[in-house]
Amino acid sequence: MELKSSGPITKPIPASGLTKHHASLRYTFKRPIPTADEINLSREEDYLHPEEPQSQQTLRIKAVPVLTKLKEVIGWSPLNEEALTDPATSNAIQLITAMSLESLQAVWKSVEKDEELKNLFTEILPLTGTNPAALMVKELVLSGKLSDVEAQRMVAFIPYYLRLPSEKLLASWEDLLKGSSSIKTKELKSAIAIAFGHLVGVTCDSKLRPCKNDTINKYSRMVYDAFKSAKTHHEMVVSIMALRNTNFPSAIERLVPYVKTVPQAVRPYVIFALQFVAVSNRDKFLSAIMPIIHNTTEATEIRMAAISTLFRSKPTTLELQELIGVALNENNQEVLNFILTTGRNYADTKNPCLQSTSSDLQLLMRRVDHLKTDFFRSSNRVFDFQDGKYGFGGGVQLATVYGEESRAPLIISARANYHISKYRHIPLEMMLRFEGVDDAYLRLFRKLDPKDYKLDTLKDLLQKTLKIAPRQKSQFKVEIVLRSQGYDLMYHHIGGDELGALMEGKAMKELLSRGVKLTRSMVMLGGNQFSWRPNDIGLALGVGLSTPAFARHQLSYGNVNQANKIGRSIQIDLGMNFQVTSYLAVYNPLGVSQGIVKMRGSRFHWPDNVQVSFSPADTQIEIKMSTPTEEKPLSLLFTSKTSAVVSSRDADSKGLSYLKDSCPECEPNALVTRGEKFRKGLVVRESINSRLGLESHVEVSDCETYTGKASIAKLVYESFKPSEINSHGSAPGFLVMGLMQMRNYFYHYPPTGTCSMKTVLHRTRINPADAIEIRLKADSNPPPWRRAPPGMTYNNVKGSVTLLGTPERKWNVEVNVEKEPFNIRSSVTVKIARLANPTLGVPSRALCVNVKTIWSAPPQDIFETPSIVQPSVHRDVTMVWGDAPANECPKANAKGISTMTVKVVGNITESQQEAATIRNSYPYDRCDLDRNDAGRTGIAGPMTRACYDAVLHYATPRSYKFDIKYENMSPGGQTALDRINTLLRPVLLPYLSTNSPLTPTKNVAGTGHIELKVDVGEDDINLLVKTDQAHSQYENIDLLKSTRVKLRNARLDMSHLTAIEAGWVGVCDVAPKAVVTFDKTNMNYDLPKCYTLISADCSPTPRYAIFARKTNTSLPMAARVHVGGHTLEFNPMTDSSVELKANDKIVKIETNKPFVLSDKDNITQYAIVNRIGARYFVQIPVLKLSLRYTGDDIVTMIPSIHRSQLCGLCGDYNGQFSNELVGPSGCIMRNATDLAQSYVLRDKSCKETIPTPVCAEPGSEKKSSGILSYLYLDRLIRS
């Protein structure tokens, strides 16, 4: 049947004779749908389709053969294309859907002893959505015939797929709440409670069949009482989810008073549940949400839960305006970043359902255009698309929340949605909540020996002498929530003790030692959405979508340990089959059905057999992976076709005869097509790679829409239109949205698109590669012919990649990295050598890459700007590939040897040098003031934000020259260069300033010379390109401005800068009269003359402490560092020198000769001290803690795993600016001077009389003198 035209789904289909439009019609069937009171739960549901049903006896006879057929289809060959559209899955679902409870019980008895058929039956049962299936699930759960996991899945999915909910079913399912000997675990009890709330919601939320008031009141009271009686965190969360699933606004409103009274970890769930109150009682909703958003003393997670809930509840313009006002005055950077990312994402959305909100939000977001977002902070990002031609769209939302205690994400939440016209579907939402991750990491991987480190000594000092109340982090726990279509489906909670017991349990140990083998066939999805409605001539029109899918996975895990080797084997055989069928059918009263059915199917198969072994003694790893075979290939199949269907149970019916007379071209099953001439086939790739022993095949067949390069290019263009995608400049987001839109083109639209595709990879028949073996060995040894200079480090990896088989194909791999101290000089060499293979006629060949980099030597004080030696970099890159003797590199520029050399020179610009010399602008003028500010004497450059910015500005080369030459380039290499040129030219064309063609010269094939000059500005880039053909100048290239953030600084290591920017490292600077805390708050105070706690681990088991005191010498500060009970003390002397004591013994330290404080065997290193000029650098290896002491100030750098359990003048490092004045007991002090006095160590060495301050009255404390965005860094490692 030939298709005439197609268009958007929202556009009416014009046709002559269609003049009547029926708003509603009423049909009378032989088997009318019963009322809520008349419904028989155990009877088959045969009243949802006008056709005559089959008898229950017939269905029982068919059940086992249909399930057996499904089992066979699941086990078909991965390349069997019939499985793509085979109706076995749909037939099994429809068959079980039509059964009564008695029939289901009979089928269960028939399949109970066949494990695979039983699995398929239990997989399908909840997907049917019938009342008999719901009763059957209840019966199986109460009888204990299901595993715990199976029971959880079935009770969760029954309400989701239920077609005809009723109050009778609610009363029946109350038996599950009463408890049973078969319902033991908290996970199953939770699943039942959440599912029951879901069942109440879908039953009583129906406008056509609403619940009675008594029923609503009964279940409202039941779920609310369950919440009030909940004791544990797990019980509270489950009861809130059950209450939220009911969709009873009156019951959910009763949660409002609990927003502030429930435990902290439960409050986000309560806040999120109030979303339903926003519709029924907006004022009450706002009275609960808005105070939380405005309250800056609330926890970060709580405020972001309120903000997220507000955005989900369709905020008005006034509410959005109030939220923007909060952002303008917000000091909490996590909350600010969350508001900005959420607002900007919703403002630019392509979703038509949010257009009314987005237009207002676009205007409001202009007020905060000057505020920048940070990738490393809490964010809420939305990527979506909207097709302008066919009217479908979709999107993905990803939210990340960081709390006060950790820089590991506290919450990761994701949501996927799609919409067609005005109909929106949210198939999946997932939320992961982690708590106590850092603390668990410390206890597992940073555990200290209490006796060796003398932890009790430090504990007594802090908790008894200083009377510090221990700061306790939350214990480790994980929470997982799955939701769909607005309902909670699953909640899982696992605590640290539970996880530890699981890992230490006998079952887990046996699993790890003996292995496991699992084979399972499963039915996934399978939902069938169907509805009847009238068409324009008054006939019953059925519209539906079916998504059956099945999978079969074989997984085995085993222990293959050998002598001195740890070995594991993993075998996977995964096959998945997805089908999407959408249909539109008209049922004629004469007994004939006529309609359009579009079927799409895809099949994926992944076989793998991996063995991994590791040898700790020589740091060697071996990996062996089998290659796919013809019988079990790595494959992906796809097919799509649209059919016009005419059917009737009676072949001689009058309706069918009439239809054939009026429509001669109508057939029982006719392919809808644009015509035979449009259906083509194309073998895209047919390659037998004898050198690799692998064969690949890519084929397009019977395809009328996507055939050839032109149609593929058109498909890509239609799918990746920037005007239809909202990705906020994110390349991954743009790619994902484009792929989602491309999928919709294949699966939903256009109405035709008949096409089949096949992609296969497997080993060849002749000389196959049976497996891939990778062997790698790492070491840090210098070359045997070279003596290692002081400070030089070496990292070597040597190994091979082998394709096992007959013949054997082997490549030897070698990587060597050499680095001088501070990475001034470095060398990287890579050699990949293919060994000769006479059987295949392949000679030995190698690719060698050599990279040599020289940075200008930094001054002794890396914060010195300007310096005598200007920052610069020289890098030489040489790449050579071609035939060569075994395991040797080819000779560069030799005949037939492809050679490419790249010389890179980077320098600072004249403007950079001038600004650092004149020093009349930020950051240089501020850095000069900081040198003698806050009581410093100016003996060393301080690590303030201004001095840090000065180093970033001055020591980052911004002018680069590239000299690229290549000779003997192979045809493939030359083609690659030409394609790069073709790709870049149209991108850079809008920025072309001048183009000067040169007189053509005779070029030698495979030879070329390119010169580039790149000047990186603050907002754009200027590029000069010189080739043998032309000189081209490109100016103000703003597309490449993000390149500047990747420029390497000549003095500061990029990894350390990233760690500070991301908040993975906290930095605190303490001077005699000012402190900048870990949370970047600047506070003015006077350092007492007795030792005062600067920073300490104030957990119940302290590990370190740092004290400082004011002196009367030329250097104003002394410092003492405790690593457990071991101490380092820095005392300034009268001659401006510093005396160092280790465990109360004076030690001498010379420049560039580190002192190590360790045990007597030098096995455990407590601290390492380096001296460079007037600066002392202290490292505590086990804690990854670094300090810089100058006598003017002391800088502490600590990883975020210690976050939120610190105390002292540097604060608790919880990410908040407004909570820095916390004293030893945990109360708030009035100001920074009182804070310092509260942390004075009043021991026998303190001769001063320093008053003990009292805690401030609530609200009377003095805020810090200002918030300084304070980033700085010196060399973390000076050894």
UniProtKB/TrEMBL annotation:
Pfam families: Vitellogenin_N, VWD. It comes from the Eukaryota. The keyword Glycoprotein applies. Keywords: Disulfide bond, Glycoprotein. Residues 1-412 form the Vitellogenin domain. The lineage of its organism: Eukaryota, Metazoa, Ecdysozoa, Arthropoda, Crustacea. Signal peptide: none annotated. It comes from Daphnia pulex. This is VWFD domain-containing protein. InterPro entries: Lipid_transp_b-sht_shell (IPR015819), Lipovitellin_superhlx_dom (IPR011030), Vitellinogen_open_b-sht (IPR015255), Vitellogenin/Apolipophorin (IPR050733), Vitellogenin_N (IPR001747), VWF_type-D (IPR001846). Residues 1066-1247 form the VWFD domain. GO terms for molecular function: lipid transporter activity; nutrient reservoir activity.
